[in-house]
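In this section we turn from sequence analysis to structure. A common task in structural bioinformatics is to predict how a protein folds when a small molecule is present, because the ligand can shape the pocket around it. The inputs are simple: the amino acid sequence and a SMILES string for the ligand, here zinc ion. Study the lines below before reading on.
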Amino acid sequence: MSETDRLLENNEAYAKEFDKSGLPSPPAKGVAVVACMDARMDVHSMLGLKEGDAHVIRNAGGVVSEDALRSLVISQRLLGTEEVILVHHTDCGMLTFKDEALKDAIEADTGERPDFPFHAFSDLEGSVRTSIERIKENPFIPRKDSVRGFVYEVETGRLREVV
Ligand SMILES: [Zn+2]
C-alpha cells in the first residue's frame, strides 16, 4: 500500500464529514497568497484562513514565476482578488543550491538541459523584493496597491515583513 493509498483512505473519512459545499468560487477575503511549497508551512493556519477565503499559489520558494503570474492574473481579473501576500521562509531549500549547478547535474544525468529557471536564491529578503517587483512590473495584473512580502520563520511561526 502506497502513502497515496493511505491518504485516499483519509479522504474517504473527510468526505463523510464534509460540510463545505456551496462555497462561492471567488475568495471571500479577496486575497491571493503566493507561498513556498515547504511542508512545514500551513498557510491557512498561519494566517487564520478557512476554505473559501483565499487563493493559495504555491511553488518551490514561493517565487513569482511565470506560472505564479499566470495564476495571479486569473485570480485578480476573473475572481476579484485585490491583495497579494508573498511568503518566503527561513531555512528554505532554495537557498541551498544554484540554478546552473542543478542544470549541470540534470544534464549530466539525462543528456538534456532544462530550459526553464529554477529560481534558486541566496538572499531571502532580496528574493521577496524581486517577487514584489515582478508583480509591480507586470502589465496584466490590475491591482498592485496591496502587494506585501514576508519571511515566515519556521522556528517561531511568525511572519516578518520585508520592507
Ligand atoms: Zn521553501
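Residues 40 and 154 are 7 Å apart (CA to CA). As an exercise, try to locate the residues that line the zinc ion site and compare them with your own expectations.
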